[in-house]
Structure formats: structure tokens, C-alpha cells
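Predict fold of S1 motif domain-containing protein; 277 aa.
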Amino acid sequence: MIKVGQINRLEVTSKAEFGVFLDAGEYGSTLLPYKLAPEGLDVGQSVDVFIYFDSDSQIVATTETPIAQVGEWGLMQVVGVNSTGAFVNWGIKSKDLLIPFSEQRGRLAEGKTILVYVYTDKASGRIVGTTKFNKWLDNTPANYKVNQAVDLLIAERSDLGFKAIINGEHWGMIFPSDVFGKLFVGKKLKGYIKQVRADGKIDLSLQKVGVAKMDDLSSKILELLEKKGGFLPLSDKSSPEAIFAAFRTSKGTYKKTIGGLLKQGKIRIEKDGIYLV
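Predicted 3D structure, encoded as C-alpha cells:
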């Protein structure tokens, strides 16, 4: 079954002077121009293509990869605005993505870079974008556990911190006390569930919380020490940036962890770094 708005693997059924025809299932055949086809593509072979409808509602195949497929979020730049809405560059040269005025949370201006959710409008069958995310999130119970690893997408910045989309399904918040490293709208990263509140709101952390955080970091430090011959040039005096680059954790957490390893007799701390005992 062909999934419009997503990448499909289609078989070449015939060749023409200007391209190859692909079997698009219930939509019949679709042309893939030679300029977009892999070199040497022949009848009977298959190719991965992105499928969408053009302005005449005809099925189109391209080997270009969109910034976001249907059901995904992506960071896109507004390239034009008209009476219908705003158009963003979603990575397909021959077609920009429409964000209707009704799907804009605040008017969009040309040149602005925004986070967009791509979906298929049921009424028209068109692939469109939206900046109104709430109707796509928190529609299922948030059955998360503390310290559960999740995929995060930074969606908004506010006075409270950073709002993030969890596993493409729920809203969560990263408060300033849990922020380290550079965060920006559109960034994808791993995170952890810090707390699911009684009202259903979810607090997030970029590292494990509590004892689990310390245990996890301890293991990583010891493993890296063994790989590096028993020495790491990271002491309790090292910069937060150097520590984050090595372990994606805060300097405070690192200091507490190596302090614990020191008490356990597993390492010694010198001015130039830490040594495996």
C-alpha cells in the first residue's frame, strides 16, 4: 500500500526517454525523471522515493528527502506568504509546503525559521503543515516511569524553560536547573522522565535523576578510564564545557560522581585529571 507523504520503495516497470515509470500501486504509474534517478536504475529494480501530490492532484515521486514526512516535525524556513497562507521549504525543490492561516499560531513572515508538523488534511487530501501542535499531542495516557529514556524534540522556549515533544506524543518541560549544553528549537536529543505530576504534566531531565544518575555516570567514567589507559584529563577543576563534551552531564554531577568513586577507592584525583586505581 502506497503511503502518500512518506518514503516508499517502488519497482521500475518501464523506461522512457525522459525517465523511468514506477509502480505506484492503487495510484497507477508515476514518473521518476532520470535527473532524480540513481544511475543505472533498470526495469525490475526498486528505488526509495518520496510520494506526494502536485498542484494538479497528480501523484509525484522524487528521490529528494523532505525535512519531515507526514507525521513528523521539522525545522523549516518560510519562503513566501499569500492569501492562502505561508509556504515553507521542506526540502522538495519542486514543491513548497503550505501552512494555512488556520494552522498558524501567530502570523508567519517570510525568512522566519519555524518548527512545523506535517500532516494530511482529511477534507482536501493535501499534505500541509501546522504550527498548532496541541491537537497532535497528549492524546494518549502518559505511561512513563521515572528515569525512562525518551526521544526529545525542543519545540519552544519560555520563561519556565524549554518545552519538548516526548517520543512524538506528549508535551514535557525542561526547567532551567536541568538545562546544560546548548538547547534550541528543533534540536533532537535523548532525555529522561524526571517526574509525571498528578495533573499529568511531565518534567524532563537531560540526565538520569537521583542515585540512578550517579550510578550511570560512574559506570561511564570507569569504562572510559579503561579505554584511555587509566587516565582522563578531567578533574574537579575542569571546565563545564569539557565535562559536558565527554559525558553530557553538568559539572556539579561530575564532581559528586568522581567524589564517590574516590571514596570507593576506584580512582584518584590529581590536578591534571583522574586516574584509575
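The chain has four domains: 7-62, 73-134, 149-205, 210-276.
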